[in-house]
Specification:
Ferritin, 0% strand
């Protein structure tokens, strides 16, 4: 049985993913001995916080039709399900990745990992596009994907600077 998501549900996941992403960078920053590296990773965490705020603002603009739940949820378990999906989708801010940090990772390894996770997030959102019917805001998923693509570009720029 297929499950259709509403745009509101997708934003709920996107907000959780961004919160996880901020946690990813803060955890990596906590291991850094060099103040400049620590500050850089904290800056990336703040960027994730801003993404989260952007998605929260976008969620406020969701129409009533786009907020409509697509499944019957008498036990009110949908939010838990959406959080679990956001935590386990394998991309940006996956808590398991952040928990695996040992403190031995180089800045290049951290940023390269982050780029890979951001790309996985883009694929996750592209897959969700097939699960959001047009009447539930399918077209607006492109805004989320655009934000994630911009973040990949920014991280690639940071990586180039770090390795030159």
């Amino acid at each position: 049985m297929a499950y259709d998501f509403s745009l509101n549900e997708v934003f709920e996941m996107a907000i959780q993913i961004e919160a996880n992403g901020a946690g990813f960078y803060r955890k990596a920053a906590g291991f850094q001995k060099e103040p400049a590296d620590k500050e850089f990773l904290e800056k990336l965490a703040r960027m994730e916080d801003k993404h989260k705020q952007t998605f929260e603002a976008m969620r406020q603009e969701v129409s009533d039709a786009e907020k409509q739940q697509t499944v019957f949820d008498p036990a009110n378990e949908l939010s838990m399900y959406l959080k679990a999906m956001a935590d386990s989708h394998g991309g940006e801010g996956n808590p398991e990745i952040a928990d695996s940090f040992t403190g031995e990772e180089t800045m290049e390894e951290i940023i390269t990992t982050a780029i890979g996770l951001e790309k996985e997030s883009i694929l996750f959102y592209l897959g969700l596009k097939d699960l959001v019917p047009p009447k539930y805001g399918h077209d607006k998923l492109d805004h989320i994907i655009k934000e994630e693509k911009l973040h990949v570009a920014q991280l690639n720029g940071f990586l180039k600077k770090a390795t030159t």
